[in-house]
User: Fold this.
Amino acid sequence: MPGPLVDTFGRVHRDLRVSVTDRCNIRCAYCMPAHGVEFKPHSAILTFEEIERFIRVMAGLGVRRLRLTGGEPLVRRGICRLVQMLSAVPGVAEVAMTTNGVLLAEYADELRAAGLARLNISLDTLDREKFREITRRDDLAKVLEGIAAARRAGFTEIKLNAVAIRGQSEDDVVPLARFAGQNGFELRFIEFMPLDGQDRWEQCRVLPGEEILRLLAAGIGPLEPIVEASSRAPATEYRFCDGLGRVGVIASVSEPFCDRCGRLRLTAEGMLRNCLFSTEDWDVRALLRSGADDGALADLVWRAVRAKKRQRGTDQGQFAETRMAMHEIGG
Ligand code: SAM
Assistant:
């Protein structure tokens, strides 16, 4: 069956997150445990050629935007070659990346030359000691260098992503917004989701979007909603009335945007997922490695899309109980 990939709720799927590794060079407590993580062996991870073949099939089904993620995509050796391969696939309009920025100073120019269109960089705090506590690594300076290098390399529309956790993030909200505003980046706060892989998530640890907006208004000044914001963006966007710039809130917990979700995800080991919270996945790798033809791959994709539930992996509205951590799925 040809694309576009429309699910049973009428949602059209044109975006695919491609995780290229489950490994990471930092250890954010909300994403993975400090020790004892068992990473997948290299043989279990899709090769670049396997990813490219699958993307050709997806592009044939109407998928237009790719975002490379992980784990940390920049720890995957040869990542710029993958960017180049995927940018050249007919039908793919954009290849973007989400990164923690630690290795970005090294790769920014090469990524740009390879055709990477956009960068989202994760940054939860501008305080060195706090950064070390959150990520269990002392790498804030490298991230800031990476951000500067990305700008020099010609990336525009850089977005900074900060996870919002009650009791942790409150003091960072205003400094991050000032930093983003003064440098021309859009800042987005993401509500803490139950994907830490350690069962430590609790509703009371979510710093809701509404409260973030109150902190911003009190610390900087009034904000107004941006009405023309893209309807497919997960963030609700605002601008400061004094012109400092824009901020977004990804209220995945307090105000889920599942009715507008047109995303699919491919894990590093080649499992297709129709939701972060899906309790099921579809084994692309097995098909790729058993010599299946493109038709069989497209059928698998359609099965995944048709099985997509209404909200957060269920039809009921609560979070489906996935046991996977964010770094294993690809955020
Ligand atoms: N390593 C890259 C990075 O740090 O941007 C890409 C992968 S990371 C899993 C993608 C995004 O997911 C990051 O912005 C991270 O902060 C966010 N994230 C991870 N765990 C999360 C959680 N439990 N709730 C909300 N966001 C989370």
User: Anything to note?
Assistant: The mean pLDDT is 94. Residues 24, 30-31, 69-70, 72, 98-100, 122, 161, 163, 190, 192-193, 195-196, 326-327, 331 surround S-adenosylmethionine (CB under 6 Å). The chain is about 30% helix and 20% strand. Residues 2 and 278 are 24 Å apart (CA to CA).
